[in-house]
Each structure stands twice: as structure tokens, then as C-alpha cells.
Design a protein that fits this description.
Helix content: 25-40%
Strand content: 15-25%
CATH architecture: 3-Layer(aba) Sandwich
Order of helices and strands: HHEEHEEHEHHEHEE
Distance between the termini: 44 Å
CATH topology: Rossmann fold
Number of domains: 1
Number of strands: 8
Largest sheet: 8 strands, mixed
CATH class: Alpha Beta
Shape: globular
Number of helices: 7
Oligomer: single chain
Strand order of the largest sheet: 3-2-1-4-5-8-6-7
Structural class: alpha/beta
CATH superfamily: Vaccinia Virus protein VP39
């Protein structure tokens, strides 16, 4: 009996985007830009509320720097496996302060307890070993540090909207932009975090706003700058979360 190979997510596309990372409206990368317009202020506000000072921040799977380049008040390091993406990120770093490193998220090249905060936006669903990534994130976080994440839930509705809806509606969507088997339920992420010394303390859903910009996407296949996402109570499609690293030993029970 033969077994068909697992469907693989197409991560190679990010190295081919060039300036389209920041310019294209006929590509699903514009959805990532729209997501960042909602998430970035949320992360900035949380960092300010929790620390009240400039923080050491690591952006794992930073891509072309949508988040890293927006955290200019902090000491930011972005790491990604795509050198072409990092080159675009450096070009768009208006502060000139972000450090960009080429590397593997399952083997982060940083010392234990190096960062106040670690972010993984739209990243956990692109790797085969998300638990290994979370283990490394837990290792490099300082005690009382914070882990911010965003990913997609694994269910039929997410398949229909996040995968097939994007394929049907957005121009130039490549094959296997996302693969359902790599999506993660909130319980799975919480369990991975718990096993590696992190406590998930907050979860909030995300969805696109149904407005004129959404209608324009349906009719033209383009994502205009007015296209927006909003937070929602439901985590059935996509969700953001916060996990903390307690400043205390974990005792076996």
C-alpha cells in the first residue's frame, strides 16, 4: 500500500515578492499588510502597558518587516529564513535600528532569556514543527516575558474562508499558500506553550471587515489600502494570543 505525500505549504513564494511585499494590491501579501495594521498597534500598546519602557523584542518569521519596522521605540531583532525578504525589510527600516538575522526558528541563534517579548505573526502555520518553535521562544524569553502570536484555526470554516476564499477571490494567489493540516487550534497552541513554560493568558479572534473595501475585493480581486481587519470574540477563523513566561519555578504535580 502506498501513501501520498503530505501537502506542503508553499513558503518559497515569499522570497520572490521583492518590493511587492509593500506595493502589491493584486496579491494575498496585501492581506498580510492589512492584518498588520490591526495587530501592530495592539502589540505596541501591550508592550507599553506591560513594560512601560523600551523592550528587547524578537520578531520570529519577520518576513519583510511589517511588524519589526513598526516597533521603532524598541530594540528589535527580526529573524527569517528568507534572505530576499530580509533585504526588503532592511530597505524599509526607516529607523535604521532593527537588526535582521537569517536563521531557523527551530534553532534560534540567541542566548537563553535574551528578550522581553517575542512575536510570531502568521508564522506557526507555516512550519512543520510549531512545538519546536514555541520551545525555542520559551527558551529565549526572559522571566516575565511575553509571547505574541497570530495563527489560523483548523476547521472547515477556516478552510472555506482562509484557504479557498482567498484562492477564489484574490488575484495571483499561489498554490498552497496555506495548508489546512498545519493550522492550529487554540487548545493545541495552549498545550504547546504550557509544555514549554508559557501560560496563554489572552486569546482574541480576527476577521475581515465587511465594508466597501471588502466588496471591492470580491469584484476586482484587489486588496485596497482601506481593506481592514477587526478583532472579534470568535476564534473560529484566525486568532491572536498572548502567553507569558512566569517568573517562578514550575513544580511537578
Amino acid at each position: 500500500m502506498t501513501h501520498s505525500p503530505k501537502q506542503q505549504v508553499n513558503n518559497a513564494i515569499y522570497s520572490q515578492l521583492g518590493q511587492r511585499w509593500y506595493d502589491a494590491d493584486d496579491d494575498p501579501i496585501a492581506l498580510l499588510r492589512a492584518e498588520s495594521r490591526l495587530r501592530n498597534p495592539w502589540i505596541r500598546d501591550e508592550l507599553s502597558r506591560r513594560f512601560g519602557r523600551a523592550c528587547m523584542v524578537l520578531d520570529v518569521g519577520c518576513g519583510a518587516g511589517f511588524l519589526s519596522n513598526d516597533l521603532g521605540d524598541h530594540l528589535v531583532t527580526g529573524i527569517d529564513a528568507s534572505e530576499p525578504s530580509l533585504a526588503i525589510a532592511r530597505q524599509h527600516d526607516r529607523s535604521g535600528r532593527v537588526r535582521y538575522d537569517l536563521g531557523d526558528a527551530t534553532r534560534l541563534p540567541y542566548a537563553d532569556a535574551s528578550f522581553d517579548a517575542v512575536c510570531a505573526m502568521d508564522f506557526l502555520e507555516h512550519v512543520e514543527q510549531p512545538a519546536e518553535v514555541i520551545a525555542e521562544i520559551g527558551r529565549v524569553l526572559k522571566p516575565d516575558g511575553v509571547f505574541f502570536f497570530h495563527t489560523f484555526n483548523r476547521n472547515w470554516l477556516a478552510w472555506l474562508i482562509v484557504i479557498k476564499g482567498v484562492e477564489w477571490l484574490v488575484r495571483n494567489t499561489p498554490r498552497d499558500l496555506h495548508v489546512l493540516r498545519l493550522f492550529l487550534t487554540p487548545d493545541e497552541v495552549s498545550t504547546m506553550c504550557q509544555r514549554h513554560g508559557l501560560d496563554v493568558v489572552s486569546l482574541i479572534g480576527m476577521r475581515p471587515c465587511i465594508d466597501g473595501a471588502f466588496v471591492r475585493l470580491i469584484t476586482t480581486g484587489r486588496i485596497v489600502p482601506a481593506f481592514r481587519f477587526t478583532f472579534t470574540r470568535s476564534t473560529r477563523l484566525a486568532y491572536c494570543g498572548i502567553a507569558t513566561k512566569p517568573n517562578r519555578p514550575r513544580w511537578p504535580y
